[in-house]
Specification:
255 residues, Rossmann fold, 7 helices, 11 strands, ATP-dependent DNA damage sensor activity, ATP-binding
């Protein structure tokens, strides 16, 4: 009984050491750095956590900035070019910063926000899915809290013309707030006809000798990049055989 207090203190010290040591190992092995708080979101040489332990020669660190007055951005570009990975990387950096953790970037600036939302692409196009999206999404948009909203190809929720109107209305509303948003889309040309917004692009240059996509995964700001589906078709065409290869070949003839 006399040693109970000392034992409990020792246990707490061991637990605290274990926590600090584990956190230190996590930061060391993933090459994490402390972020800075600021008025927007930006990072240099950022990397998705899932790629942090990969061979550095096989991954590309990326730079990006989302700051006022361009608090809403359309992100365009190559299929399989890394647009979704960029959204996830920014989400990771923001969440880890708010948790008081170092982040997977050489430098990072993060705005303190109240809420973060990530809407991924929807596979279902039925009326129920569209109604469900609206009932979930619109209350979030009109909330007064500062937030970061990441939208991944929302055009899949409904037909093209309606999706353009919905996204354009969303852009206009967020631009007049203190919140931030990135919208991955293949409809940038149509959206720009109805609203004024910055467009960034991830550009694909072609395919290498092994038919892998050659792409600079750091977005070019104020640049419209094509989705280049023909490159993906060429890739799968070269890696296919038999009747499937013939079908892909006929598709390529249309480009």
């Amino acid at each position: 009984q006399l040693l109970k207090g000392d034992v409990e203190m020792e246990i707490q010290e061991v637990l605290e050491f274990d926590y600090q040591f584990t956190l230190g190992c996590f930061a060391f092995y993933h090459d994490l750095r402390p972020p800075q708080m600021g008025d927007g979101f930006s990072f240099k040489e950022g990397l998705h956590l899932n790629l942090a332990r990969e061979d550095p020669s096989r991954v590309q660190r990326i730079n990006y900035s989302l700051e006022s007055p361009d608090n809403v951005v359309l992100l365009t570009g190559a299929n399989s070019g890394g647009k979704t990975t960029l959204l996830e990387t920014l989400a990771q950096i923001s969440i880890m910063s708010h948790m008081g953790l170092p982040v997977c970037a050489r430098e990072a600036q993060v705005k303190l926000i109240d809420e973060l939302y990530f809407f991924s692409k929807k596979r279902s196009l039925d009326a129920g899915a569209f109604e469900s999206f609206l009932s979930t999404f619109m209350p979030i948009v009109v909330r007064e809290e500062d937030k970061l909203i990441l939208l991944d190809e929302l055009e899949a929720i409904t037909e093209l013309e309606a999706a353009v109107k919905i996204i354009s209305s969303f852009i206009d509303f967020i631009q007049d707030s203190k919140s931030f948003a990135i919208i991955v889309t293949h409809m940038a040309r149509e959206i720009l006809k109805t609203t004024n917004v910055r467009v960034d692009g991830i550009e694909a240059q072609g395919l290498d000798d092994e038919y892998n996509l050659i792409v600079d995964r750091t977005p070019r700001m104020n640049y419209f990049a094509r989705s280049t589906p023909e490159l993906i078709l060429r890739m799968v065409h070269q890696r296919s055989d038999g009747k499937l290869k013939d079908i892909y070949g006929k598709m390529l003839e249309r480009f």
